[in-house]
Amino acid sequence: MSRDQKAGTPKDSHYARLRRAHRDTKSKGVHPNAKQRSRPGEPTPSPPPDGLVRLYGLHTVRAAIDNPRRRIVRLIATRNALQRLGLSEAQNTRFPIEIVEPRTLDRLLEADAVHQGALLEAAPLQPKRLDQLGETPLLIVLDQVTDPHNVGAILRSAVAFGAGALITTTRHSPSESGVLAKAASGALEHIDLIEVRNLAEALTELERLGFRTIGLDSEGPAQLEITLAGERIALVLGAEGRGLRQKTRQTVTALARLDMPGAIRSLNVSNAAAIALYAARRFFDAQGQA
């Protein structure tokens, strides 16, 4: 609202109503942007059984079924979705399959969940420790990025560009969920997830392992392309708005920016991750690295 706008105008009243609605929903524990069920009085979906997650969407479900590390409890699907999944007889015997109508899945999931007729109840994947990191030359490290949509999208880009692992902190990071897995579109099953308690210590350990740790910052002193060097690279990204924490800035090998000539000088963290991964992959290709 502009400074010279007078109180009591229609626009002012509109913003006041939005603020009141935000306070009301927050006090009730409801996210102000959450989509509500289309029919008033319809019960909210029940949580999955203890210790399990619900994964939905054709790509997500198919990738989970193909992952030998994934323990699946049951598949709930429509006949059409089951046909599109194309399960073999061997896969049909690994877990029970329940054929349902689409409205059954609607009742199990949030109103905005695009399930495409397929839902898995499965045990979450067990995150690895940093000392279990493989010989990958490329990593993504997230400094308290909490939005599961963003983390899922970053996972998808990481797998597409050949990153070997995604490192997050034990706290202030989203746990595995249907929302995260759907945003990852199957990538969750193709990359190692590593959790660390202390990110600064983990970055120091990565440097000891030969990684050049590069923190992405809109005000970084050098272009990302200039900072890329060495045989192993870890790209470090922070949460939207706050960005990298001060301790992280002090610990990384270098701070770098993505040069953008337009009027907007920052990107969604998942978009920034995709561009940085592309640049790192081009660097490795130019050096003749795998």
Question: Any overview of this molecule?
Answer:
There is one protein chain. The protein has 290 residues and is α/β, with parallel strands linked by helices. It folds into two domains: 53-122, 60s Ribosomal Protein L30, Chain: A (2-Layer Sandwich), CATH 3.30.1330; 130-287, SPOUT methyltransferase, trefoil knot domain (Alpha/beta knot, 3-Layer(aba) Sandwich). The protein has helices spanning 10-27, 58-66, 79-85, 89-92, 102-108, 148-160, 178-184, 199-208, 224-227, 246-251, 269-287; strands at residues 53-56, 72-77, 97-99, 118-122, 138-143, 165-169, 192-196, 211-216, 222-223, 232-238, 254-257. Strands 7-6-5-10-8-11-9 form a seven-stranded parallel beta sheet, sandwiched between helices. Strands 1-4-2-3 form a four-stranded mixed beta sheet. α7 (178-184) links the parallel β6 and β7. It is elongated. The model is unreliable at 1-12 and 21-41 (pLDDT under 50).
- CATH A-level architecture of the largest domain: 3-Layer(aba) Sandwich
Overall strand count: 11
- State the low-pLDDT regions, or none: 1-12, 21-41
Q: Look at the helices and sheets and give the structural class.
A: alpha/beta
Could you name the CATH topology of the largest domain? Answer: Alpha/beta knot
What topology emerges from the helices and strands here?
Layout: H1 10-27, E1 53-56, H2 58-66, E2 72-77, H3 79-85, H4 89-92, E3 97-99, H5 102-108, E4 118-122, E5 138-143, H6 148-160, E6 165-169, H7 178-184, E7 192-196, H8 199-208, E8 211-216, E9 222-223, H9 224-227, E10 232-238, H10 246-251, E11 254-257, H11 269-287
Parallel strand pairs: 2-3, 5-6, 5-10, 6-7, 8-10, 8-11, 9-11
Antiparallel strand pairs: 1-4, 2-4
